[in-house]
Design a protein that fits this description.
It is a single chain. This protein is α+β, with helices and mostly antiparallel strands. The protein has one helix at residues 61-69; strands spanning 2-3, 9-10, 26-27, 41-42, 45-47, 53-54, 57-58, 72-74. The strands form four sheets. It has a two-stranded antiparallel sheet. Strands 3-4 form a two-stranded antiparallel sheet. Strands 5-8 form a two-stranded parallel sheet.
């Protein structure tokens, strides 16, 4: 996930404009945004690479590098 210019948590978009192209964490459960307005987010720690995706695709090395800078290690 990322934080947009309005300070709202939004999906991370590696092809998007700043600031949504800068991940701040990993959503750790599926969220039904029609019925939920909070969700757990990993802000630092470790995540299994097989479980991390971006827009339904495996997490690429550029995203892994950005997450590492936030102390989120994807292995």
């Amino acid at each position: 996930v990322a934080v947009n210019a309005d300070g709202k948590v939004v999906p991370y978009d590696p092809a998007g404009a700043s600031p949504v192209n800068d991940p701040v964490g990993i959503l750790i459960t599926r969220v039904d945004t029609d019925n939920e307005d909070i969700a757990p987010v990993l802000m630092h720690g470790c995540a299994n690479a097989k479980s991390v995706s971006v827009n339904g695709n495996p997490c690429d090395e550029d995203t892994v590098s950005l997450l590492r800078k936030k102390l989120i290690f994807v292995r």
